Amino acid sequence: MIRVQFDECFTSKRVKALCDAEGKIAASIFPHRLRNKSIKDIEVVERFFPSNSILVTTDHRLPINQAEHIPREHPGIVVVRNNGPHTQRERDIIEVLANFKARVPQWECLTWSNSIVEFYQDRVEVYSIRDGNPTRSVVARFDAPDFLLAFTGALNAHQTRNQ
């Protein structure tokens, strides 16, 4: 079972309950004792990567601002984003995740390590850290005929890169 850790920007108990009900991942909400303590992103990365949990956030700046601190080998980062200019709401997050899962029915079988994946309503973007910088590997649009091949190919390439 995939383990994910929600960061402080992603504290939805409803999303956790949906994940738990689905039974495909073990989701952990950001510890209450650490909330509102001005925990820096680097501390989040250092604290949760050793647990081998994928870090899930809505903070699209985290991988950019912390790129130099993200180890070459890591369990993965998922950033849930919206396409619109409005503040992301819980229902937006649920919709983006459901949309992705509908297009990748066996998503829980994928290996996310060494990848930074941004989920949008209409696409996923996959990055890796190279020379301390996030480098985009692929933009895979859901309506593209090669979507699944492009997406899984990028994830697989990040697995073999470090071997």
Q: Which stretches are poorly predicted, pLDDT < 50 over at least 5 residues? A: none
Q: Output mean pLDDT.
A: 86
Proportion in β-strands: 15-25%
- The number of E-state strands comes to 7
Count of helices?
Answer: 5
End-to-end Cα distance:
23 Å
Number of domains: 1
**How would you sum up the global shape?**
globular
Structural class comes to alpha/beta
Portion of residues in helices?
25-40%
Model description:
The chain has 163 residues and is α/β, with parallel strands linked by helices. The chain has one domain. It has helices at residues 13-22, 41-48, 62-65, 90-103, 147-160; strands at residues 2-6, 25-28, 54-57, 77-80, 116-119, 123-130, 133-141. The chain has a seven-stranded mixed β-sheet with strand order 2-1-3-4-5-6-7. It is globular.
Task: Show the helix and strand layout.
Elements: E1 2-6, H1 13-22, E2 25-28, H2 41-48, E3 54-57, H3 62-65, E4 77-80, H4 90-103, E5 116-119, E6 123-130, E7 133-141, H5 147-160
Parallel strand pairs: 1-2, 1-3, 3-4, 4-5
Antiparallel strand pairs: 5-6, 6-7
